[in-house]
């Protein structure tokens, strides 16, 4: 006798599914320490501004860059750890076999979407990194600091979206292999 209903939501698989997911999780866990660095430099700014009346020119822009970068990487981390947002209204109400087909559709649509975003981000990154005649010149913020943070963020977005494409391909292959294995049994 069990106390579970037939439509109990599945427990998400929190284990990385492949070597790329494992690497993303490991690197992301290390990068997450940069959130603490952002808190410290923001605290430094507050102390300098209000205790010594000597505001900095670099803290706000640097903290925004670090935070933005970490949130960009957070997307591939969530997918690698299977903690991404999903609409479970239909997913939880169907059989295990139907969930496998829904996963297949999810990975195909996700791959197409990530591929289009990666392609678009390539154009933005290229414009931010190179002049129209091909010389390397990073786009800067135009502030007093004038850091190349916009170019670096656009480059990071392209790299992360490219990694997301690879993740979708690997996950799609695993879904197809899982369906094949079930058909052979």
From TrEMBL:
InterPro entries: DctQ, TRAP_DctQ. It is found in: Cell inner membrane. GO terms for molecular function: transmembrane transporter activity. GO terms for cellular component: plasma membrane. Coiled coil: none annotated. It is a multi-pass membrane protein. This is TRAP transporter small permease protein. It comes from Vibrio galatheae.
């Amino acid at each position: 006798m069990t106390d579970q209903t037939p439509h109990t939501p599945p427990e998400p698989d929190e284990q990385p599914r492949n070597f790329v997911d494992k690497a993303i999780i490991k690197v992301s866990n290390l990068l997450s320490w940069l959130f603490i660095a952002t808190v410290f430099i923001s605290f430094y700014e507050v102390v300098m501004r209000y205790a010594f009346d000597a505001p900095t020119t670099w803290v706000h822009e640097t903290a925004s860059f670090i935070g933005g970068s970490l949130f960009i990487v957070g997307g591939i981390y969530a997918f690698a750890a299977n903690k991404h947002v999903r609409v479970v209204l239909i997913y939880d109400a169907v059989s295990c076999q139907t969930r496998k087909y829904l996963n297949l559709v999810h990975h195909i649509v996700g791959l197409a979407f990530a591929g289009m975003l990666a392609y678009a981000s390539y154009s933005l990154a290229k414009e931010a990194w190179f002049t129209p005649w091909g010389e390397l010149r990073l786009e800067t913020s135009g502030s007093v600091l004038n850091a190349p943070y916009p170019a670096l963020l656009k480059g990071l977005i392209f790299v992360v979206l490219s990694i997301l494409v690879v993740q979708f391909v690997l996950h799609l292959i695993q879904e197809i292999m899982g369906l094949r294995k079930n058909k052979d049994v």
